[in-house]
Amino acid sequence: MTTLAQKKQHHYGARHNPKQKDIENHIIQQNRNIVNGRVVIGTASGLGVVADSQVPTADADGRNGWLFIKALAGTAKFNYYYYGQGNKAITLGELTGLHANITVDNYQSGASIPFFVVYTKPTGVGDAGAWYHSKIAYTIDANETIMLGEDIEMYSLGKTTINHKHKRMVSFNTKVVTGDALLTEEILTISIHSDSSAPASTQILVTNVGYEVLKDGEVIDRRISLN
């Protein structure tokens, strides 16, 4: 049986001689800087990504990305929904990676760190929520470290083929599962969330978000810049 790693190797042309390997490495290097989508604060598409959460702002220091500042104690948070189905459904079993570039500017507790959530389509039977069948949250691993103000690449599932601009990779592979979460379930949406229980003064910058799937033998990387 062909493994995911072997499929990725085949997809990117890994083969037989040193020159070919150099070419392959160059291609992968280029792919690590791919941005194949863009969403701007305040536009209709931007408001669709933000949905029912606090609208982000631009950074006063001129950094790219969407800045969330929790000014007061309460339940304010952000939920940025960044997956929508194309012409084919993607299942949980076909999702091979989640990734985002983030910066935590003010750390006070574990609730200061964002996390990924994957939702599956409701079926009408055994749904775990009013609008989804299952959800899986991916939170930071206990042995990982994030420095204050550090621009990192957070990832879940496998390390993706896109390590965007060589940022340090931090694993978010601690799973919290609600519902069945069977590999055959079709994905409804994917989001990056902040914690509603985060203390006042929580500050998080999200520069871009993405995911990787293996569909019909092809590795598909998606990376969306938030501006």
Written overview of the protein:
It contains 3 helices and 12 strands; from the N terminus they run ααβαβββββββββββ. With 227 residues, it is mostly beta strands. It folds into 2 domains: 1-31, no CATH class; 36-226, no CATH class. Strands 1, 2, 4, 7, 8, 11 and 12 form a 7-stranded mixed sheet that branches. Strand 11 (203-215) and strand 12 (218-226) form a beta hairpin. The radius of gyration is 18 Å and the shape is globular.
Concise description?
With 227 residues, this protein is mainly β. It has helices spanning 4-11, 18-31, 44-50; strands at 38-39, 66-69, 79-81, 95-106, 115-120, 135-139, 151-157, 169-171, 174-178, 187-193, 203-215, 218-226.
Spell out the key features of this protein.
227 residues; mainly beta; 7-stranded mixed β-sheet; 5-stranded antiparallel β-sheet
List the helices and strands and how they pair.
Blueprint: H1 4-11, H2 18-31, E1 38-39, H3 44-50, E2 66-69, E3 79-81, E4 95-106, E5 115-120, E6 135-139, E7 151-157, E8 169-171, E9 174-178, E10 187-193, E11 203-215, E12 218-226
